[in-house]
Amino acid sequence: MVTQPIRAAHQGGEIDPVRRARLEGMVERDYRVIWRLLRRLGLSPNDADDAVQQVFLIAAERLNDIQARSERAFVFGTALRVVQTIRRRARRELPSDAGDDNHSGLPDPERLTEQRRALEALNRALESLSLELRSVFVLFELEAMTTPEIADLLGLPLGTVASRLRRAREQFRILVAGAAAPNPEPASRSERAGEES
């Protein structure tokens, strides 16, 4: 729920009306964008729900430290750090066998399977990019932000953003082309034996 960070900020006592208005503006303006960013950076919907709450709780705690008109840069930067923390934690935990792929009650299973495979391929390609490249790529290509906006949000020089975007696009094209290429037929035993001779 979008008002959760604002309610949580009140638990520590009464919040100044000016600070409350500032926090409400941040949440209303950026909550959905940050949630989408977290999803596109590889978090599940449930993890994105938790992470976006965490981002705005951190913003509520640090509201006095956030410079005026830098609120958006702060929540984007915080979101990137939260994703890094979640990924580090996930690497330490053992993978579970959770996953119910029983779609028998859904209409047109072939189409659903095709869509799921395409989404999985997209996610694999995005996950193959380093976080620094993926962040710039997602913000530019999926969130339709400009390179100056991204540079401001991430606190990077404009040239670095442009360079990362170019490298991310190149890597993404290679990854997508590799995923689309048909797997070659494995050579038969007799063909392999002929090659070894």
Describe the overall structure.
By secondary structure, the chain is mainly alpha-helical. The protein folds into two domains: 1-92, Rna Polymerase Sigma Factor, Chain: A, CATH 1.10.1740; 112-182, Winged helix-like DNA-binding domain superfamily/Winged helix DNA-binding domain (Arc Repressor Mutant, subunit A, Orthogonal Bundle), CATH 1.10.10.10. It contains nine helices and no strands. It has helices spanning 4-10, 17-40, 45-61, 71-92, 109-128, 131-142, 147-154, 158-180, 189-196. α2 (17-40) runs antiparallel to α3, α6 crosses α8 and α7 (147-154) packs across α8. The radius of gyration is 22 Å and the shape is globular. The protein starts with a helix and ends with a helix. The model is unreliable at 102-107 (pLDDT under 50).
Q: What's this model, at a glance?
A:
The chain has 197 residues and is mainly alpha-helical. The chain has 9 helices and no strands.
Structural class estimated from helices and strands:
mainly alpha
What is CATH's topology name of the largest domain? Rna Polymerase Sigma Factor, Chain: A
> How many β-strand runs?
0
Name the helicity range: over 70%
From the coordinates shown, what is the CATH architecture of the largest domain? Orthogonal Bundle
Q: How large is the count of helical segments?
A: 9
Distance between the termini: 67 Å
Shape: globular
Strand content bin: under 5%
The total domain count is: 2
Low-pLDDT segments, ≥5 res? 102-107
Question: What is the radius of gyration?
Answer: 22 Å
Strand count, sense and barrel status of the largest sheet are: none
Instruction: Please identify the top-level CATH class of the largest domain.
Output: Mainly Alpha
Give the helices and strands as they follow along the chain.
HHHHHHHHH
Instruction: Give average pLDDT, whole number.
Output: 79
